[in-house]
Amino acid sequence: xxxxxxxxxxxxxxxxxxxxxxxxxxxxxxxxxxxxxxxxxxxxxxxxxxxxxxxxxxxxxxxxxxxxxxxxxxxxxxxxxxxxxxxxxxxxxxxxxxxxxxxxxxxxxxxxxxxxxxxxxxxxxxxxxxxxxxxxxxxxxxxxxxxxxxxxxxxxxxxxxxxxxxxxxxxxxxxxxxxxxxxxxxxxxxxxxxxxxxxxxxxxxxxxxxxxxxxxxxxxxxxxxxxxxxxxxxxxxxxxxxxxxxxxxxxxxxxxxxxxxxxxxxxxxxxxxxxx
Length: 276
Ligand SMILES: [Zn+2]
Description:
It is a single chain. The chain is of the alpha+beta class. It folds into 2 domains: about 10-105, Nucleoside Triphosphate Pyrophosphohydrolase (Alpha-Beta Complex), CATH 3.90.79; about 150-275, Nucleoside Triphosphate Pyrophosphohydrolase, CATH 3.90.79. It is about 20% helix and about 35% strand. The strands form 3 sheets. Strands 1, 2, 3, 4, 5, 6 and 7 form a 7-stranded mixed sheet that branches. Strands 11, 12, 13, 14, 15, 16 and 17 form a 7-stranded mixed sheet that branches. A 3-stranded antiparallel sheet has the order 8-9-10, with no helix packed on it. Strand 15 (about 205-220) and strand 16 form a beta hairpin. Helix 2 (about 90-95) packs antiparallel against helix 3. The protein binds zinc ion. Zinc ion binds near residues 122, 125, 127, 142 and 143.
C-alpha cells in the first residue's frame, strides 16, 4: 500500500515554530497540482533555495521529515515560475511516477494544503484562522473555535461467499474497474453498522461475521479507509442501487476481473482473498 514505506522513515510529529531552511524541501501546491523542478530528464521536488527568489512571502507549514530531511507545504496560488525550469504537475502524475515514500509525502502535503485552503476563515464567526502553536490545528482568536484537519472515515468491505467475492463496478464512467463496496460512515454510526448499511444499500445483500482487516489513510480525499472482511448470510440476492452501482457479481478466485495495479487497500484485500 502507498503508506507502507519501510525501511524509509517518515516522521509526521507536529513541531511548533519550525521555519524552512534553504536546503529543506518545498511542496508548493496549486489546486490539484504540485510544483516540480526539472532535473536533466526528470522532475524533482525543489528546495527552498530553488524557489526562494521566485516565491516571496509565502506562508509555509511543516509537514514532517522523510529519512531525516524536512519537508514543508506551501500554497502557490497566483505564483509564476519560469516555464523552462518549473512545472506544476497533477498530484496523480506524482502518484504514478515517483518512488513510494515521495508519493506518500506529496499526498500528505496535499491533504494539509487542502485543509488550509478550505479553512482560511472561522466557520463560526468569519474571523481569519491562525495556526495553533501547540498542535496541528487552526484557531480563531476571536471566538476560540479550534479546527482540526478533516479526516472522514470510509468503510471498505470484502464480502465473501464460500470461495467467491462480491465486486461491484460504479456508475462513474471514469472508474470502470470492479472493486469492493465502500462508503462514508454516517453521524452516530459505528464502523460495523456502516458496513451493514452500505452493503445493503449498494448491493442489497446481508452480511455477518464482520472482521476488521486494517486501515489506510487516503489523503487524496481527506479520508481514512477502514477495511473489513464479512460473510454473506445467504438470505438475499444481489440487488444493485442503480444510482451508484452499474454492476455487481460474485467472482471466484480464477475468474477475477482485471484490476489496476493499485496501492490502495481495496486492491490488497482482493489479493488477500485470491491468495487465501
Ligand atoms: Zn471564530
